[in-house]
Write a structure and sequence with these properties.
The chain is built from 8 helices and 9 strands. By secondary structure, the chain is α/β, with parallel strands linked by helices.
Length: 221
């Protein structure tokens, strides 16, 4: 019935095999924010999340940070796997760095709790927290302040998304801007290309680091 009613499907952040019932063998499918190697032949459109993480890491390394906490989204998803893998790769290649990872649902209170626990237990103490999402960063802010510390004087914080929240918190958040409108546009263009029998535009969509007040050089030890 889906094949009779639909010309094609655009699916965001889903495994391709979860859509086999809808797609069958005929219905054109475009996957957004999905692993190209696991798309079962479907077209994929992705933001360049790996480069976003590289931009964040290079920014913090350039400021002099060497001890990091990764506040990771507690969601089994390809896009969050990319963030963790790229961060680990980047820091492993830099001598003298340490990386501790803690997980939390994308929820401000859950992120506050996870950050509090991690900062209390961490040694050496991180001077920068890299968050998978701006909401996680907001939770990290709350944890830092409740521990009597300040952003960025004691700990720098970064996010990823550039939600409206990023400029609503104080100091404003250094984060990676993801162009959601262009993402949707490219997804529709890819589906139209598939329907026309053409090859969709290749290459990930560029992302941009936006530096704001939440990052600064670490306090001299």
């Amino acid at each position: 019935s889906a094949q009779a009613a639909l010309d094609g499907v655009i699916a965001s952040s889903m495994a391709a095999d979860a859509l086999t019932t809808i797609r069958g063998d005929q219905l054109p499918l475009v996957m957004l924010d999905s692993d190209p190697t696991g798309s079962h032949g479907a077209a994929t459109v992705n933001l360049d999340i790996a480069d976003g993480v590289r931009q964040i890491t290079d920014h913090l390394l350039g400021l002099g940070h060497r001890h990091y906490l990764h506040l990771a989204a507690d969601i089994p998803s390809w896009t969050f796997d990319v963030r963790a893998r790229e961060l680990t790769t980047r820091l492993t290649a830099t001598p003298g760095t340490t990386l501790r990872t803690t997980h939390a649902p994308i929820d401000i209170d859950a992120a506050r709790t996870a950050t509090t626990d991690a900062l209390t237990a961490a040694h050496p103490h991180p001077t920068a927290i890299i968050c998978d999402d701006d909401k996680l960063a907001a939770g990290a802010y709350k944890a830092i302040r409740r521990l009597g510390l300040r952003v960025p004087d004691d700990i720098s914080v970064t996010g990823l998304d550039d939600l409206a929240l990023a400029t609503a918190i104080d100091p404003e958040l250094t984060t990676v801007r993801l162009d959601a409108e262009l993402f949707g546009e490219r997804g529709m263009q890819a589906l139209l290309a598939v329907l026309d029998g053409r090859t969709p535009q290749q290459g990930d969509i560029p992302v941009q680091l936006v530096v704001r007040g939440s990052t600064a050089p670490p306090r001299p030890s």
